[in-house]
Structures are given as C-alpha cells and as structure tokens.
Design brief:
about 160 residues, alpha+beta, six-stranded mixed β-sheet, GIY-YIG endonuclease, 6 strands
Amino acid sequence: MSETSLCDKQLYYRQTVNMKKFSLHFDGYWREINKKYIPEDSGIYLIYTCRNNPENNTVSLSELIYIGQAVNLRKRIANHNEEEFQEVLSSGETLCYACASVDKSNLNIVENGMVFAEKPPYNTALRDKYDHEDSQFEIDGRCELLNYTNFTITTK
C-alpha cells in the first residue's frame, strides 16, 4: 500500500469521525383536517399531496412538495393551507404532513441538508447550495417518497 493512499484513508477517517451526524425519525402522517394534533416539538416537517382512503383509514401519498423547519411544528404547520399549494393539488387530493423532532440548534443544518438532497418543488432557496459543515443524515419512520434516507454531504 502506498503512503499516499494510507494518508488519504486516515484523512477520510478523521473527516467522518468528526462529521456532524443527524438521526431523524418521522412520525405521522397528518392530513390537513387533523393537523391540530401535530406535536408542538421543534423539528423538520414534510408536506405531501395525498389522497385519503377512508375505507382502511390510510392515505396514499402522491408527491413530496415542501420541506420546512419550525421551533413549534404545530404552530408553523397551522399557517400552511391548501390554498397555498392549490396549483399542485389534483382533484380529490389534500395536504399531508410528517414531522421529525430536531433540536432547535440544528434546524437550519438539517433543513438545508434535506432540501439540498431532495429538491422539493416549493423549496427554492436551499435547493442548490449547502452552507454548513460536512454532515451525515440517517432518516427513518413515516417518510415515504424520500429519495435519500442515509446520506452524507461534504463541502470539499
């Protein structure tokens, strides 16, 4: 093994050991009509278009349209409504929300990382740049339609 490759491996190891790591677990789904039951935690939320399936009390998600952050998820999501996203809703569709608790101090990093990775149509400001330190994201739970659930963003 050459000395250069050993140095490269040691550098990579140091970078990943010191990298910020975020684990998110998405709870939910809450339809527009039920958003008053969303937790009051700080965190990240996903907005989907969906169809209600009343016969089996489920929803069918159509598209992830927005990723946001909030110090109080319930209060922030209460400010969103169907009229805001009317142009993307098909007949019979409504909005659906999923939420993950995130410490307030990490909201900007996590939102930026998720928007940068997913590029939802209603997120325009953070889609093309990631302005934070190298970070690793592990995402699970109720987060259907995410393209990336275990990813790393490096700025170098």
